[in-house]
């Protein structure tokens, strides 16, 4: 756990070194993102992208090539035969991964590799359009169903990530097709439809892993909302000074990630940073904050920190599909599921709406202490 007082002290010292606000404003007003900086030919990254030293000294990096430890890989192909024994084996693997890692990878998930590849091509095509075309979608208004910007926490966090993002809220109220960029319109619609099916299946498996009815998580609308974040990480001339994405947990129920072959994603496991090495046809799944605590598992499952390194090689493209209804105003409260509680296992978190949790998470920005801590009973 990060020492909050130490964290705040570091932030104050880091901010005091230069006029960060002016640099942020100038960058934001270009509406060209990090890609615009690269196109301008920068050889040294602006000060706003410099990251302070990591405070978590107990965390060390272990390359997957130097260790026998790797993120669990689960083959879902056994579900096709509807063999109850194979399904039970898969559910057990999901349970172990969700409890011990908070992350796992899946193969034979049902999305054709051609769709995965075209999705990556489409997102790269969007980000590599002329800036004037992309500017049509540039905004910092998070209520928009379709938009593009660089760093949602640009003005609230102490350092900027080397990353641009295109965001689409694809469920429960998808945008009109004509409101989506032509560069990735068709594949975005197709991929979103298929990843929604994968999400519904995963919530069934997770329900069973918790000893619940297979439909229970879907019946309480865990798969109702889908927001697709399409990240673009340009090659960085000074990757050791910055990050692609600061270490953080995800604020939704579940995230399904499609990544290209560049690499850079790392997950924190037993105080060690472990590479999540790209593999063709594979999707990466991770437990979100709401699935860990305020929704169902009461800390039985874990939402763990992860990050993306900046790289001299690029661009890196990834597509993170967030299952969450955070953008939808609703009074529906989520808390630990009653069947999982007992006298010896009381609720650890207070109930909250998804929107309230997401707004609180966003106000803190990536990289700070967990937003979950503020909801503990």
Helix/strand layout:
Elements: H1 4-15, H2 20-30, H3 33-39, E1 60-62, E2 73-75, H4 84-100, E3 103-107, H5 113-127, H6 131-134, E4 146-149, E5 164-171, H7 185-209, H8 216-219, E6 226-233, E7 245-248, E8 254-259, E9 265-269, E10 272-275, E11 283-287, H9 289-292, E12 306-308, E13 316-323, H10 354-364
Parallel strand pairs: 1-10, 2-3
Antiparallel strand pairs: 3-11, 4-5, 5-6, 6-13, 7-12, 8-11, 8-13, 9-10, 9-12
Helix pairs in contact: 4-7, 5-7
Unreliable runs: 1-13
Given the C-alpha coordinates, what overall shape results? globular
Intertermini distance = 18 Å
Q: Please give the share of residues in helix.
A: 25-40%
User: How many DSSP helices?
Assistant: 10
Spatial order of strands in the largest sheet:
2-3-11-8-13-6-5-4
- What is the CATH superfamily classification? B-lactam Antibiotic, Isopenicillin N Synthase, Chain
Topology order in helix (H) and strand (E) letters: HHHEEHEHHEEHHEEEEEEHEEH
* CATH classification, class level: Mainly Beta
Biggest β-sheet strands, sense, barrel: 8 strands, mixed
Total strand segments: 13
CATH topology descriptor: Jelly Rolls
CATH architecture: Sandwich
* Mean residue pLDDT: 86
User: What is the alpha-carbon Rg in Å?
Assistant: 20 Å
Number of domains: 1
- Beta-strand content estimate: 15-25%
GO molecular function: dioxygenase activity; metal ion binding
Organism: Morus notabilis
Domain Fe2OG dioxygenase: 224-326
InterPro entries: DIOX_N, IPNS-like_FE2OG_OXY, IPNS-like_sf, Oxoglu/Fe-dep_dioxygenase_dom
């Amino acid at each position: 756990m990060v020492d909050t007082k130490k964290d705040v002290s570091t932030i104050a010292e880091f901010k005091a070194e230069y006029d960060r606000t002016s640099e942020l404003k100038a960058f934001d007003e270009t509406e060209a993102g990090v890609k615009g900086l690269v196109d301008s030919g920068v050889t040294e990254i602006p000060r706003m992208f410099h990251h302070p030293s990591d405070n978590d000294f107990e965390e060390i990096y272990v390359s997957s090539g130097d260790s026998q430890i790797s993120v669990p890989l689960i083959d879902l192909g056994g579900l096709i035969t509807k063999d109850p024994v194979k399904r039970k084996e898969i559910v057990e693997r999901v349970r172990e991964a969700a409890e011990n890692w908070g992350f796992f990878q899946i193969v034979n998930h049902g999305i054709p590799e051609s769709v995965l590849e075209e999705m990556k091509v489409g997102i790269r095509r969007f980000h590599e359009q002329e800036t004037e075309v992309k500017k049509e979608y540039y905004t910092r208004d998070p209520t928009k169903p379709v938009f593009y910007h660089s760093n949602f926490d640009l003005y609230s966090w102490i350092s900027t990530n080397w990353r641009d993002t295109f965001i689409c809220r694809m469920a429960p109220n998808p945008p009109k097709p004509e409101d989506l960029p032509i560069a990735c319109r068709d594949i975005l619609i197709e991929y979103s439809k298929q990843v929604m099916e994968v999400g519904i299946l995963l919530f069934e498996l997770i329900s069973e892993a918790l000893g619940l009815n297979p439909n229970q998580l879907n019946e309480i609308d865990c798969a109702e909302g889908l927001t697709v974040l399409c990240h673009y990480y340009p090659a960085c001339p000074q990757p050791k000074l910055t990050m692609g994405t600061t270490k953080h947990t995800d604020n939704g129920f579940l995230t399904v990630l499609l990544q290209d072959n560049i690499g850079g994603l790392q997950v924190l496991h037993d105080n060690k940073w472990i590479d999540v090495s790209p593999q063709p046809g594979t999707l990466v799944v991770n437990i979100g904050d709401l699935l860990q605590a305020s929704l169902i598992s009461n800390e039985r499952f874990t939402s763990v920190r992860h990050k993306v390194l900046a790289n001299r090689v690029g661009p890196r493209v990834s597509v993170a599909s967030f299952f969450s209804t955070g953008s939808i105003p609703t009074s529906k409260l989520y808390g630990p599921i009653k069947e999982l509680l007992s006298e010896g296992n009381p609720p650890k978190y207070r109930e909250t709406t998804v929107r309230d949790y997401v707004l609180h998470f966003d106000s803190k920005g990536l990289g700070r202490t967990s937003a979950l801590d503020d909801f503990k009973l």
